[in-house]
Amino acid sequence: MEVAFYLSGLVAILATLRVITHTHPVHALLYLIISLLAIACVFFSLGAYFAGALEIIVYAGAIMVLFVFVVMMLNLGAADARRERNWLVPSAWVGPGVLSLLLLAILIRAIYGVPDHGITGEVISAKAVGIALFGPYVLAVELASMLLLAGLVVAFHLGREDREGDVQPKESKVPDATRRKSEEQA
């Protein structure tokens, strides 16, 4: 199982790097699905079968379908691809990269500072997870669902914007004088 753990971890790291560096959004989402499946394999190799199954069902399944739907709805064109390529220049990502490395160092320091209590090996049932999610953590679950809904609404409105190079709708055939009268009456 140790070989499966390291191979799955390597696949997850490589696929995540492709998610970050890929300029085509649909291809980046496909690499993200591969990364999430590799993380599920890491869970399976550690013996956390329920967490691996949740990873596949929730993240690689439902949420990725939502992401693919939003990307297809936005219908990103060539202008967006050029703008995204401009974001990949080193001057655009060096600052966030340095800050991310600083956060990683803080996280590693915090992890090694926590005393090790060991893993008890206690089996947690799906019922216990459901009770915890919809018991004391119900507010967090509902807030997460509202955030996803708000993101979907924003993506829908962004997708409706007129883009450069797109065909504009034809002007109405109503004469200007008639249009002004109807606007004044309203």
TrEMBL record:
GO CC aspect terms: plasma membrane
Pfam families for the chain: Oxidored_q3
Protein name, UniProt field: NADH-quinone oxidoreductase subunit J
Main location: membrane
Domain of life: Bacteria
Class of enzymatic activity (EC top level): translocase
Keyword Flavoprotein tagged: no
Entry similarity comment: Belongs to the complex I subunit 6 family.
Membrane topology annotation: Multi-pass membrane protein
Gene3D superfamilies, sorted: NADH-ubiquinone/plastoquinone oxidoreductase chain 6, subunit NuoJ
Alphabetized UniProt keyword annotations: Cell membrane, Membrane, NAD, Oxidoreductase, Quinone, Translocase, Transmembrane, Transmembrane helix
Transmembrane segments: 6-21, 28-50, 56-76, 88-111, 131-156
E.C. number: 7.1.1.-
Swiss-Prot/TrEMBL catalytic activity: a quinone + NADH + 5 H(+)(in) = a quinol + NAD(+) + 4 H(+)(out)
Role played: NDH-1 shuttles electrons from NADH, via FMN and iron-sulfur (Fe-S) centers, to quinones in the respiratory chain. Couples the redox reaction to proton translocation (for every two electrons transferred, four hydrogen ions are translocated across the cytoplasmic membrane), and thus conserves the redox energy in a proton gradient.
Any one Gene Ontology molecular-function term assigned to this protein's record: oxidoreductase activity
Segments of this protein annotated with the region Disordered: 162-186
Subcellular location: Cell membrane
Subunit structure: Composed of 13 different subunits. Subunits NuoA, H, J, K, L, M, N constitute the membrane sector of the complex.
Record keyword tRNA-binding present: no
